[in-house]
Amino acid sequence: DAGVIQSPRHEVTEMGQEVTLRCKPISGHDYLFWYRQTMMRGLELLIYFNNNVPIDDSGMPEDRFSAKMPNASFSTLKIQPSEPRDSAVYFCASSFSAVNEKLFFGSGTQLSVL
Amino acid sequence: GDSVTQMEGPVTLSEEAFLTINCTYTATGYPSLFWYVQYPGEGLQLLLKATKADDKGSNKGFEATYRKETTSFHLEKGSVQVSDSAVYFCAPVPGNQFYFGTGTSLTVIP
Predict the structure, then answer these.
(1) Which residues pair with B14 in a beta bridge?
(2) Is A98–B51 a contact, with Cβ atoms under 8 angstroms apart?
(3) In angstroms, rounded to a whole number, what is the distance separating the alpha carbons of residues A7 and B24?
(4) What DSSP letter does each residue of B36-70 carry, written as one string?
(5) Residue B46, class by beta-carbon neighbours within 10 Å (0-12 exposed, 13-18 middle, 19+ buried)?
(6) Do B42 and A56 touch (CB under 8 A)?
(7) CA distances from B56 to B48, B51, B93, B97 (A)
(8) Contact between residue A94 and residue A24 where contact means Cβ atoms under 8 Å apart
(9) pLDDT of residue B2
């Protein structure tokens, strides 16, 4: 298995632009998580899905952030409009179950908003 | 709510030194406990886990024992290597959500 695949690996954009991050979970995993990592705040859970349905989006910072999972093999995290304070590494992770099972993380997307 | 308190870093050790990274948790019930490791430029990966009290998880020379009486899951290694330089995260699994602490950065110098 190729593992969790995220794209792009790096994204540099200007303030106000729309940014879309993509994630392909491991086949057969029915939980998908989006995290954001910064030096100041560490690793924050933004949202997670179960069987393509958003279960908890309380970590999404504001309305500029949205996430979708149109099918079991694809998810997007969109920021519109982007701001410099959104600069961070965004990780996608998946798991077979959310109870007593480990998460498999992608390599992350390094986002820089200028 | 459920949470972890993890030793703050950064931690710098010489090669072959003994490592302890403290982790205590508050949770309803008896969660499984995990340690994840993040090497530079990579995502997190599971290092070890324990699912019940007194269980000891171990991997790559690292160990952690699930102590229910002290609600702790401290990570230890007897002799660290330069390749152990990474960020370590303690995470309980309370139900259906995965919360991570801020992590502890470890640098091992030759």
Answers:
(1) B109
(2) no
(3) 35
(4) EEE-TTS-EEEEEEE-STT-EEEETTEEEE-BTTT
(5) middle
(6) no
(7) 9, 9, 16, 23
(8) no
(9) 64
Instruction: Give me the residue from B32, B97, B102 closest to A100, CB to CB.
Output: B32
Q: Across the strands, what pairs with B13?
A: B108
Q: Is A58 helix (H, G, I), strand (E, B) or coil?
A: coil
Q: Which of A2, A46, A29, A33 is nearest to A97 (CA)?
A: A29
- State how far the Cα of A93 lies from the Cα of A32, in Å rounded to an integer: 6
Among the partner residues A41, A45, A107, nearest to B98 by beta-carbon distance:
A45
Q: How distant, in Å, are the alpha carbons of A59, A90, B15 from that of A63?
A: 11, 17, 47
Average pLDDT per block of 10 residues along chain B, 110 residues long: 78 97 83 90 92 92 93 95 95 65 90
Cβ A108 vs Cβ A37: under 8 Å:
yes
Q: Which residues, listed in sequence order, are joined to residue A6 by a DSSP beta bridge?
A: A23
Which residues, at least 6 apart from B7, have a Cβ–Cβ distance to it below 8 Å? Answer: B21, B22, B23, B104
What is d(CA B76, CA B100) in angstroms, rounded to the nearest whole number? 19
Neighbour tally for B58: CB within 10 Å: 14
The Cα–Cα gap between B46 and B44 comes to: 7
**pLDDT tens digits along B56-76:** 999 999 999 999 889 899 999
